[in-house]
Specification:
This protein is mostly beta strands and 226 residues long. Helix content is 13%, strand content 50%. It is built from four helices and 17 strands.
């Protein structure tokens, strides 16, 4: 299997499959493909997996595309940004923000991932309830805007504003840190809490979270008089 990410900030990933190879994706994610590739729709694991995808913002069903002869299939991002190819191995599970999954190849198991720190669930936005990917293969993630990536060393900390975390190794610890100082909380415009990421592990940050973008666009939209 080979792949090529094209399109700049309106990206798509083109996957080249050999005979018998398969790729899984969100329902409706396929953009174009060769006629040698056939689709099969299923829950990929029963009711439990279906519920897990529902609570993490993914479609209820998954499509599996299998090549009966060599061919190409493409998946386009649903929002201006980036597509990241992330390698998952048995000793390197990965956590991702809700709704980030685009497609995967190989033996990948997707479940609901719960962070270790309960505080993240209530205040961190991207914390507590995330998608967890385990197995052996490649997962393609949709990223809002451009990507900035870091390899955190053991004990190294990165403080991230809520919503800017896209993907991280499961070895990274996520916690919540309250903004210090009453004046900073009230007038700083950054909210009450920041997401604290502690290594070791790789993290992928995004520069244009969809909720932030929607808030900015809303200011310029006409609103009916009340």
């Amino acid at each position: 299997m080979q792949y090529n990410i094209v399109g700049g900030n309106l990206p798509a990933v083109i996957v080249s499959l050999n005979q018998g190879e398969s790729v899984k994706c969100e329902s409706g994610a396929m953009s174009w493909m060769d006629p040698s590739i056939q689709m099969e729709t299923n829950t990929d694991g029963g009711v439990g997996k279906l519920f897990g995808r529902m609570v993490t913002g993914e479609s209820l069903m998954l499509n599996t595309y299998t090549a009966s002869a060599p061919g190409e299939i493409a998946f386009a991002s649903s929002f201006p940004g980036s597509i990241v190819a992330y390698t998952v191995t048995p000793d390197r599970p990965v956590m991702a923000q809700k709704g980030a999954f685009l497609a995967s190849v190989g033996n990948i198991n997707m479940t609901v991932g719960f962070n270790k720190k309960v505080g993240g669930g209530f205040f961190g936005g991207e914390g507590f309830l995330m998608q967890k990917f385990e197995g052996d293969g490649i997962v393609f993630f949709e990223i809002d805007g451009s990507t900035v990536e870091y390899d955190l060393q053991p004990g190294q900390v990165k403080i991230v504003d809520t919503g800017y975390l896209a993907v991280m190794d499961a070895s990274v610890t996520l916690d919540i840190e309250m903004v210090k100082g009453l004046k900073n909380m009230v007038f700083g415009g950054e909210g009450l809490f920041n997401t604290t990421l502690t290594g070791p592990g790789h993290i992928v940050l995004q520069t244009m979270p969809i909720p932030n973008t929607a808030t900015v666009l809303y200011r310029y939209m006409p609103h009916p008089s009340r």
